[in-house]
Amino acid sequence: MFKKILIANRGEIALRIIRTCKEMGIKTVAVYSVADEESLHVRFADEAVCIGPPNSAESYLKIANIIAAAEITNADAIHPGYGFLSENSRFSKICEEHKIKFIGASAEMIDKMGDKASAISTMKEAGVPTIPGSEGLIETFDEAKKIAKKIGYPIMIKATAGGGGKGMRAVWKEKEFLALWESAKQEAKASFGNDSMYMEKLVENPRHIEIQIVGDKYGKACHLSERDCSIQRRHQKLTEETPSPFMTDKLRQEMGQAAVQAAEFIQYEGAGTIEFLVDKNRNFYFMEMNTRIQVEHPITEQVIDYDLIKEQIKVAAGIKISGNNYFPKLHSIECRINAEDPHAGFRPSPGKITNLHLPGGHGIRLDTHLYSGYVIPPNYDSMIAKLIVTAQNREEAIQKMKRALDEFVIEGIKTTIPFHRQLMDHPDYIAGNYTTKFMEEFEIN
Description:
single chain; five-stranded parallel β-sheet; four-stranded antiparallel β-sheet; alpha+beta; about 30% helix; Rossmann fold; Dna Ligase, domain 1; D-amino Acid Aminotransferase, Chain A, domain 1
């Protein structure tokens, strides 16, 4: 087992990893930018190293600084969390070259599954259902037009290096295709330095349902059931729940088996997520794979009593997985609390927290790095907390979430708490009747 793990991240996920490491008797190293000097992950790690200025490109994304921090503290492993360098194949490779274990996917696996066009091709080989679309990357617009005509409108054009909705455009008619194609390529180039595109048939009003998997170095994988992530705004998830109110036992078995089949086909090592789009007839299609821990992993942990970070660390250390598939016996919902003003188009709201009261009680989990007096910097993602509730069934979970949101007080900044409270009263949400298009018609009071 590792003696010391450096956490190449910040905020709640860095704190989350530190907690599990402490419980496993593993020493921890926090890295931080100048803007995060007062953050809790810095306070609770065994050691902390400043790696640069507030700008992520000069700190949390600066591979040389992170490797240097690992070497001067004698860390024998690095956990990247999610975001930042968690799916950066170059970082994974450099860790390997420096004899530091990267607690995540290998460089080869990240390249194979991180490139979305390549991933779709691989899943076809594995026998996993995929959305009809282009065979690999599209070289020219003329080629794109021919493919669109063949599979039929509406279509979705996507950047192969994309994420967070960037480089994606829905095209409903041929006459608007060229303008959307060019704008998607420009956005992809600016965001990822890669404007390569591929195309899929647009699945209208789908559910976004993902399957959590874990694989070991011995070629075995298991799944930990599903999470429904369909409540999204601009392709950014807002809430997640497990089990999905849309699932049937038959569909759960089929999607779980497909996810394990995919993981074992590519001999995946570590925790990962196979993401699917599911249409109104419950046909499911592979969308992408995340080769890292997900933001929403706590709801899976809650319903099956399983520490996914611990499992990640054990698998990275060469320990076999149990080999069992898991199915939830409880119901869990997560609300992502962001420092944003939902009444002003979800505009970011960084600043100082002047007063804070955290919800508690049976079935409440809060993953956060907040404290009263903490200053939320404007330099990073606006998510500041994850509120997770767990109950015997969905109806009880919604009631528990309402109560917890009512107790959650954050003053000094605007947050998305009022939005989530309104969502929990929405009749379609209560009925489990929602798709990825839900937020397009949601009006915030």
